[in-house]
Amino acid sequence: MVVMTTMESPERWRHHGPMSAPGAGSLTFDGLPIDVAALCRIVQGVLIHSDWLTAYGVSEAQFRTVSRETLPLAGRLRQIADLDGSALTVERAPDRRAVGTCRDYALMLCGMLRQQGMPARVRCGFGAYFTRAWEDHWICEYWREGRWRRADAQLDRIIAPSLGIGFDLADLPDDMFITAGEAWRRCRAGKADPMGFGHGVQASGLWFVRVNVVRDHHSVNGRETSDWDTWRQATAARHDLSESERATTDELAAHPEKPTAEPLPPWLGR
């Protein structure tokens, strides 16, 4: 059960932000089902993950664009319409879907829920159901019946069985996904090994958990993308965190929803 850890109000996440607004194109979120699992299936029918193309029997050469850039939903819906102008409820063939990443799935589900007036937000953290202990991952959190619930819109009938998943992906068990702040607090308390959190061989450890803490902080403050997405450019020297950086991250991990009065200082060029 995901409960509120602060005096935050879910009303704050009921309305669209710049990334989640669907725009005024030919494809809209109006008239979609209210069931979260059904919405997840709709998302899965129009998106395909860039890392899982072969699982669907397709290759990069079959797509106009293969990118890890997360687009605002208005732009993403235009891209989907250009590929296939059918209603969103019509499942596309794999090679007629827009290519994205887990964040695109989470953002689209978030936008669909907000369109119906349901508080929803995109969270950055780590999933326990991939190939490593805790894999870098993004999901959608939504408010229903007095608590936050978590949904993974990416894992469809192709991917979920390959990972041996048997739980409800529209209401994730507490031990299957943790936010970056939760991961940071565990690591700082000595309850988890920082090297168990990350993305691939070269991106793991406390420095990477910190990257996700800041990205999650930005996301719940309406910036589902940020300058911190350039973490792949980080040099090895940036993997050593100062005491000041650790203290700042402690605060963000404890209160990710707290607005930042000033931009965080640049970190890649040091």
Description of the structure:
With 270 residues, the protein is of the alpha/beta class. The chain has one domain. It contains seven helices and eight strands. Strands 3, 4, 5, 6, 7 and 8 form a six-stranded mixed β-sheet that branches. A two-stranded parallel sheet has the order 1-2. Strand 4 and strand 5 form a beta hairpin.
Domains (count): 1
* Helix run count: 7
The average pLDDT score comes to 90
Number of strands: 8
Q: Give the radius of gyration.
A: 18 Å
- Helix % is 25-40%
Write the H/E string, N to C.
Answer: HEHEHEEEHEHEEHH
Q: N- to C-terminal separation?
A: 40 Å
Helix-and-strand structural type: alpha/beta
Low-confidence stretches: 265-270
Shape: globular
Describe the sheet with the most strands: 6 strands, mixed
Strand content: 5-15%
Summarize the structure.
The chain is α/β, with parallel strands linked by helices. Helices cover 27% and strands 14% of the residues.
Keywords:
7 helices, alpha/beta, 270 residues, single chain, six-stranded mixed sheet, globular, disordered C terminus
Topology, pairings included?
Elements lengths: L35 H9 L2 E3 L23 H11 L14 E3 L1 H14 L4 E8 L6 E11 L2 E5 L7 H4 L14 E3 H9 L8 E3 L3 E2 L1 H15 L22 H12 L16
Parallel strand pairs: 1-2, 4-7
Antiparallel strand pairs: 3-4, 3-6, 4-5, 7-8
